[in-house]
Amino acid sequence: MELNNLITQQWQVIMNNDYHFDRQFWYGVTTTKIFCKPSCPPRPPIYNNIVIFTAPEQASAADFRPCKRYRPFNQIVNNQIWVNEIEQV
Asked: Which regions form coiled coils (predicted)?
C-alpha cells in the first residue's frame, strides 16, 4: 500500500462519485479502515485520510474492510463482524 499517492483526478472522481472509474481504483479511508469504489456515495472523506488501491484484495491485505453498501467480493458483511470490530475500538 502506498500512502499519500492520491492524485488530483482521483480526488475529483471520488468527490463526484463517478461510476466511470469503478474497477479502475478503490479508495480507503485511513481513519475508519473502510474501502470503497469511487461511485459509492458516503459522506465525503478528508483528502489527507485517503489511500488509493488498485484492487479490492490490496485493500483487504492492508486490513481495510469493505463498505457495507459496496460488496467488492459479492458477499454480505455479517453485522456481528461489524459490531465486534466497533467494540474493539
From this structure: none
Instruction: Give the total number of structural domains in the chain.
Output: 1
Q: Residue 1 falls within a domain, yes or no?
A: no
Q: Say which DSSP state 8 is in.
A: H
For 85, phi and psi rounded to 5 degrees? -65, -40
pTM for the model: 0.73
Which CATH number characterizes residue 52's domain? 3.40.10.10
Q: Which three cell numbers stand for residue 80?
A: 456481528
59: part of which helix (H) or strand (E)?
Answer: helix 56-61
Residues 27 and 35 sit within 8 Å (Cβ to Cβ): yes
Residue 51 banded pLDDT, cuts 50, 70, 90:
very high
Residues acting as catalytic residues: 36
50-53 β-sheet, strand order = 50-53, 26-29, 34-36, 65-66
